[in-house]
Amino acid sequence: MAVWRVKFTKTKRDKLAQVLWILNWFSVLTGAILFSLGIFLKVELNKQEEMMADRDIHYVPNMLIAVGLIACAINFLGGKICYDCVDTNKFLRWKLIMLPYIIFTFFFTFCVLVGALMCYTMRGELEESLNLGLTQAMKFYKDTDTPGRCFLKRTVDILQIEFQCCGNNGYKDWFQIQWISNRYLDMTHKDVADRLRSNVEGKYLMDGVPFSCCNIDSPRPCIQQQITNNSAHFNYEHQTEELNLRMKGCRQALLDYFTHIMQSIGLTVLIIWLFELSVLTGVRFLQTSLENVLKQGDPDSESDGWLLENSFMETARTNLNIIKSLGKSNQIDDGNNGDPNINVPSTSIANYGPDNVPPKEAPEAS
Amino acid sequence: MAVGKLTFTKAEREKLAEVLWLLNWISVLTGAILISLGVFLKVEIQKWQEVMSDQGILYVPNTLITTGLAACCINFLGGKICLDCADTNKFLRWKLVMMPYVICTFFFTSCVLAGALMCYSIRSQLEESIFLGLRNTMRFYKDTDTPGRCYLKKTLDLLQIQFECCGNTGYRDWFHVQWISNRYLDMTSSIVVDRLRSNVEGRYLMDGVPFSCCSTLSPRPCIQQQISNSSAHFNYNQQSQQLNLWRRGCRQALMDHYTGIMQSIGLTVLLIWLFELLVLTGVRYLQTAMENVIRLGDPDSESDGWILENSLAETARSNFNIIKNLGKCYQIDDDPNINVPTASAEQEVPSRGVHIPVTS
C-alpha cells in the first residue's frame, strides 16, 4: 500500500529527469535569491544600527544567507544527479547517494520554512530594540562633544527627516529631555537659571523640538519653540494644528518600514519553500522508479514510482525500529533476531546417551 | 581614384556581412540605451521643473529619445539587409534600397552627434533658467494659499533639504524676501508694524531663514532667527556660524547635479555615435563590394569595395550638379527623345514630275 504510487514508462522517466534537471538549476537561482534577500535585510538593519539597542536580531538575515548558500549547493548536486538519471547506467553511480540526498534535502526544506516563519516572528524583538535605542539616542542628542556620541545628533536629525517622524512615540518626547547642550546655554541669564532650578534633575527642559521635526507640508513657517503656548504665535492653536510638526513617532515609522520589508521577504521565502518541496517530490519519484527498473532488470520497461513504499504508519514504525537498533548495537543479541553466524554454545547438555552403558554384544555370525 | 578602396574575396564578403549583422543588432541595443538615457534625463529635469523658469530645456531629452527610436529602426533594417547580403541573389532584393539607406543613416548619425553636443552646450541656458526659477520660487514661498503656487513652499523645502543648499546664491537671499505670509503676522503688534514700515515696498523682511536651511552637521541646535546678530545667541562664534546653515546656494547645487548627469550622458552618446559611424562604414563597403560583384557577373570572384567612387571633390561636384538639375526639371532641355523641330527649315524639294514616256 504505497503512498501515491504512479506508473512511469521509459519516456516518462526520461522526461521527468530532464524537467527536474531544469528545475534544479532554477532552484540554484532561487537559492541565490535567498542569499541576496538575506544580505539586503542585513544591510538595512545595519543602516539603522545606531537606533537599535543590543538585541540579537541579526540571526534572521544570517539564517537566510546560510540557507541560501546551502540551497545553491544542494540544487547544484541535484541538477547533476537528475542529468545522469536519464541513463540507467549512469544512475548506478548515484544509486547509493540518492536516498541520503533526499532525506537531507527534506530536512533542509524544513530549515527554509523556519527561515520564512522567523521573518514574521522577529517583529516583537525589533520593537523592543528600537524603543530602547531611540530613547538612548535622544538622551545623547546634545552630546556632540563626547567621543563616541558626537554623531548621534546628525543621525537622529537625518532619521527624523528621512522617515518623516519625530521623537520616540511622538513630538512630546522631546519635552522631557534636555536636547540643548549646556555649552550653548547662558548660565548667567535669569530665565535659564530659573528653568534649570524648576527641574528636579537640573535639566533644561522646554516645550520645543529640533528643526528636523518640522513638517514640509505645513503652509506656515515651522513653529519649533513654545509649541504648547497658543498665545506666543499669531493664529495658532496647538491642539488642532496637525501640519506643523511630524505627528508620527520614529519607533512606529521604523517598525512599519522593517515590517514591510520582512513581510515581503517572508512571502518570497515561503514561495521558494513550496518550489523546493515540489522539486524534492519529483526527485523522490525519479529515484524510486529508477530503482524499480533496476530491480526488474529491463531498462526499457515500465516501473512504479512512489513517495513511500509502505503506508505512513508502517514507514514510521520501521524507521523507529532502525533507530532503536542503532542504540542497541553493542549488546549481545541472542533472541529470535540473533545473527545466525555467531556461534553461541547452547546451555542444554549435549545428549550423547546415558553413561556406563555396556556396549551391546554383537551377535556372532555363524 | 576611389576613397578607401579595399579588395574583398568571397569569403571576406560573407564574413563582413555576418559581422555587420551582429553589429547592427548591438546597435539596436545602443539605440535602446539612447532612449533610456533620454527618458532618465527627462525624468530628472521634470522632478525639479517647478524651480526652473524655462521649459525649453526639455528639447535635449526629447532629441535623445527620438534619435534612439530612429536608431533602433534603422539598425533593425540594417541587420536584415546585412543578413541577406551574404548571398548574392538575396542582395538583389535590397539593391535599390541600399544606397538611400546608407545616405539616410549618414544623416542620422550626424543627428546623434548633434544630440551629444547639445548635452554640453545647454549649460548656460540651464543656469539662467535655474537662477530665474529659484528667484521666483523664493518670492512665492509664502503664497501657500494661492492656487498654482501652493506647493512651491514644499518643493523648495525639499530641494534645500535634499541638495543641502540654502537660497539662490547663499542664505542671505532669504533676507531680501518676505517668506512669512501676512496671514501669520500679527498686524496689531508694534514690532511687526515697524518692520513693515521700515521697508519701501511694505514687506516683512528679517534676518531669518526657513528651517530647511538648517545644516544637520551643526553641533548645536539650529539658529534660524537673528542670524547676523551675534549677541542674540550665547557662544555664537565663527565656527558656529559656519556650520549652522548650509553654505552652498541651490543654484550651484542644481547646476552641479545636472552638469554631472549631462556630461556622462554626452560622453555615452559620443561613444554610441562612433560605433554607429563604424557600422555605417562597414555597410557602405559591403554595398559597394556586392554591387561590383554583380557588375563583374561572377558571384565567387573578388571585388573592390570603397567609401566613395571618386575623390571627395569630384563626388561633391557631381552631387551638386544633380541637385541643380533637380531644380531645373520643368525646363525643356535637350532630351534626345523629344522631337524638337530644328530652327532652319529644310528647303522643300520640288517634287519632280515623273515623265512617263507614252509608248504607242
TrEMBL record, chain B:
This protein's species is Labrus bergylta (ballan wrasse)
**A single Pfam family, by name?**
Tetraspanin
Q: Which GO terms describe its biological process?
A: visual perception
* Entry's Gene Ontology cellular component terms: plasma membrane
Give the top-rank taxon of the lineage listed in the UniProt record for this protein. Eukaryota
Q: Report the locations given in the UniProt record.
A: Membrane
Chief location category: membrane
Q: Which residues cross the membrane?
A: 20-45, 57-78, 98-120, 265-286
Checking InterPro entries in the record gives: Peripherin/rom-1, Peripherin_LEL, Tetraspanin/Peripherin, Tetraspanin_EC2_sf
State the protein's name: Peripherin 2-like b
Q: Which family does it belong to?
A: Belongs to the PRPH2/ROM1 family.
Q: Which UniProt keywords apply?
A: Membrane, Transmembrane, Transmembrane helix
How does the protein associate with the membrane? Multi-pass membrane protein
Does the keyword field hold Methyltransferase?
Answer: no
Quick check: keyword Heme in the entry? no
